[in-house]
UniProtKB/TrEMBL annotation:
Summary of the function given for this chain in its UniProt record: Carrier of the growing fatty acid chain in fatty acid biosynthesis.
Compartmental location: Mitochondrion
The keyword Transport is assigned to this record: yes
Family matches, as PROSITE patterns: CARRIER (PS50075)
Domain Carrier intervals: 4-79
Keywords: Electron transport, Fatty acid biosynthesis, Fatty acid metabolism, Lipid biosynthesis, Lipid metabolism, Mitochondrion, Phosphopantetheine, Phosphoprotein, Respiratory chain, Transit peptide, Transport
Taxonomic classification: Eukaryota, Metazoa, Ecdysozoa, Arthropoda, Crustacea
Organism: Daphnia magna
First-listed, main subcellular location of the protein, grouped into a coarse class: mitochondrion
InterPro entries assigned to the protein according to its UniProt record, in alphabetical order: ACP, ACP-like_sf, PP-bd_ACP
Name of this chain's protein: Acyl carrier protein
GO molecular-function terms, A-Z: acyl binding; acyl carrier activity
Length: 83
């Protein structure tokens, strides 16, 4: 899986999440500060990523995933994608 594919899939999952204003969504958008999500929304986003990519993200790791770019890097690392 390429970095581009991961990025596209992460952004697609986020665009489908009804609480995210797509016009404010970028790879560097902070989930709480820029997109206005709360901690429960953040948990739902992480769960959606787990479903999309087929593996569990431990809570300790999930707490550090505060931007879409963080999720892309995390998944690329788990999938051993280096670009």
């Amino acid at each position: 899986m390429s970095m581009t594919t991961i990025r596209d899939r992460v952004l697609l999952v986020l665009k489908l999440y009804d609480k995210i204003d797509v016009s404010k969504l970028t790879l560097e958008s902070h989930f709480m500060n820029d997109l206005g999500l709360d901690s429960l929304d953040h948990v739902e986003v992480v769960m959606a990523m787990e479903d999309e990519f087929g593996f569990e993200i431990p809570d300790g790791d999930a707490e550090k995933l505060l931007r879409p770019a963080d999720i892309v890097r995390y998944i690329a690392d788990k999938e051993e994608v280096y670009e």
